[in-house]
Write a structure and sequence with these properties.
By secondary structure, the chain is of the alpha/beta class. It has two domains: 119 residues, Aspartate Aminotransferase, domain 1 (Alpha-Beta Complex); 235 residues, 3-Layer(aba) Sandwich (Aspartate Aminotransferase, domain 2). Helix content is 45%, strand content 13%. A hairpin with a 4-residue loop joins strand 5 and strand 6. It is globular, with a radius of gyration of 21 Å. It binds pyridoxal-5'-phosphate. Pyridoxal-5'-phosphate (PLP) binds next to helix 5.
C-alpha cells in the first residue's frame, strides 16, 4: 500500500445517514437516525443552566493554560459523586480515580487502551446488538471483540437468560462492556435483580466489567439510573466506567466525559490512573477545558444543580410522553402490529421492530430516516411530525410486511 491510490473509507453508518438527510429536499422529512436529543421544535437546545455557566465562565476566566492530564480536579470530584452517589464507599475510600476525557468515546478508548496494556490476551465482550462504535473503539485499542446475546427480536425484549449463560462462560480477565441504562440501540435494560445476578456472575468468573454510562438521567432519573453499577461496587470488583455528558448536559460538541477507575484499594487506583495519564499524554496530551468547567460549575452550585436536574427530568419526560403518543397514534390507526413494547423501552432509542424493507420504504417514499435494524431516536418525534410519522409507519407495515 502507498499513498498514491488511497480508496475512500466506508462512511459511518449513522453520521452518513445524517448527511443523506441534510441533502433530502422533501420538506416533510424526519430524522430519527441521529443520536442527539431534540426538543418539540426539533432543535438540540443549549440547556439554560449551561448558557448561564458559560456566561459566568466568560466573565471570570483568567487563563486558557493547559489542564492537568487527568483534567479539572473539581470536575473529577463532582462527577465521581454524580456517577457513584455522594459519599459512596468507593469515593470515600479513594478506590475510585477519575480521568476527564473527550466525551464518552474518549473515556472508552483510554479505558480500552489501559486494559489492553495490562491484559494483552483479553477479549472485549459486547452486547448483540450494541452501539456500533464499541467494536471500532475496542478493536482500535487492540482488544479482539466478541458478542454476548442481549436482545430477543421475537419477544422484543431483553434475552437475559441467554445473556447470563454467556456471561457465565466469559474467561477470567476478559472485559465485558455493559450499558448502565438506556441501552443503545434497543432501549431494553436489566432489572435490579438481573443486575445483581450479573454482578454475582462477574464475581464468580472474575471478568472485568466496563460500564458505558452515556445516558445517566435519561432512563428513570439521575439517581435511579446508577442502580446497575451498585452490586458490582458492593462485590468489591474492579470496575471501569465511561461517563458521557454529551446527552444529559447537552454538551455534545464540547467533548465532555470521564473515565472512572475503581480498583481494589486506593493505592492501586492511583497506580491505574498513573498509567491512564501516560496513555492520555501520547493520545491528546490533556483534555479540553470548556465543557468540563461548565459541568463542574453546575454540579458544584446547589441552585444551578437543582435547575439542571429539572432540565434533565424535562428531557426524560418528553421522551416518555412521545413514546406514549407514538404507541397510541399507531394503535389508533389500526396498525397491524402491537407496538406497546415501546412503552417499556427507556432512553432516547427504541428498537421499532421494523424490517429492513420497511425502513427502506420509509426513507425512499416518506423521507423518514432511521438506522438499519429499525432503531429510532424517539426525541426526533415532535407534535408536528407525529401524525405524518404514524400514517407513514402504518403504510410501510402494509406495503412491505
Ligand atoms: C452507548 C453510547 N456510548 C457512548 C457514546 C459516546 O458519547 P460521546 O458523544 O460523549 O463520545 C454514545 C453516543 O451516542 C452512545 O450512544
Amino acid at each position: 500500500m502507498n499513498l498514491n491510490r488511497v480508496p475512500p473509507a466506508p462512511p459511518d453508518a449513522i453520521l452518513g445517514l445524517t448527511e443523506a438527510f441534510k441533502k433530502d429536499p422533501r420538506p416533510e422529512k424526519i430524522n430519527l437516525g441521529v443520536g442527539v436529543f431534540m426538543d418539540d421544535t426539533g432543535r438540540t437546545p443549549v440547556l439554560p443552566t449551561v448558557k448561564q455557566a458559560e456566561e459566568d465562565l466568560a466573565r471570570e476566566e483568567t487563563s486558557k493554560s493547559y489542564l492537568p492530564i487527568a483534567g479539572l480536579p473539581a470536575f473529577g470530584e463532582r462527577v465521581a459523586d454524580l456517577v457513584f452517589g455522594a459519599g459512596h464507599e468507593v469515593v470515600r475510600s479513594g478506590r475510585v480515580r477519575m480521568a476527564q476525557s473527550p466525551g464518552g468515546t474518549g473515556a472508552l478508548r483510554i479505558g480500552a487502551e489501559f486494559l489492553r496494556k495490562f491484559l494483552p490476551s483479553s477479549k472485549a465482550w459486547l452486547s448483540a446488538p450494541t452501539w456500533p462504535n464499541h467494536k471500532g473503539v475496542f478493536s482500535a485499542a487492540g482488544l479482539p471483540v466478541a458478542d454476548y446475546p442481549y436482545y430477543d427480536p421475537a419477544s422484543r425484549s431483553l434475552a437475559f437468560g441467554k445473556m447470563a449463560e454467556a456471561l457465565d462462560s466469559v474467561p477470567e480477565n476478559d472485559v465485558v462492556v455493559l450499558h448502565v441504562c438506556c441501552h443503545n440501540p434497543t432501549g431494553a435494560d436489566l432489572s435490579a435483580d438481573q443486575w445483581r445476578e450479573a454482578a454475582a456472575i462477574a464475581a464468580r468468573r472474575r471478568w472485568i466489567p466496563f460500564f458505558d454510562f452515556a445516558y445517566q438521567g435519561f432512563g428513570a432519573g439521575l439517581e435511579a439510573d446508577r442502580a446497575g453499577l451498585l452490586p458490582f461496587l458492593q462485590a468489591g470488583l474492579p470496575v471501569l466506567v465511561a461517563a458521557s455528558f454529551s446527552k444529559n448536559f447537552g454538551l455534545y460538541n464540547e467533548r465532555t466525559g470521564a473515565l472512572a477507575l475503581v480498583a481494589p484499594d486506593a493505592a492501586e487506583a492511583a497506580a491505574w490512573l498513573s498509567h491512564v495519564q501516560v496513555l492520555v499524554r501520547v493520545l491528546y496530551s490533556n483534555p479540553p477545558a470548556h465543557g468540563a468547567a461548565i459541568a463542574a460549575r453546575i454540579l458544584g452550585d446547589p441552585l444551578a444543580r437543582a435547575d439542571w436536574e429539572r432540565e434533565v427530568d424535562a428531557m426524560r419526560g418528553r421522551m416518555v410522553s412521545i413514546r406514549d403518543a407514538l404507541v397510541n397514534g399507531l394503535r389508533a390507526r389500526g396498525a397491524p402490529v402491537d407496538f406497546s413494547f415501546i412503552h417499556a423501552q427507556r432512553g432516547m432509542f427504541s428498537f421499532s421492530g421494523l424490517s429492513d424493507a420497511q425502513v427502506a420504504f420509509l426513507r425512499e417514499k416518506k423521507a423518514i430516516y432511521m438506522v438499519g435494524g429499525g432503531r429510532i431516536n424517539v426525541a426526533g418525534i415532535t407534535t408536528r411530525n407525529l401524525d405524518y410519522l404514524c400514517d407513514s409507519v402504518v403504510e410501510a407495515l402494509r406495503a412491505a410486511p
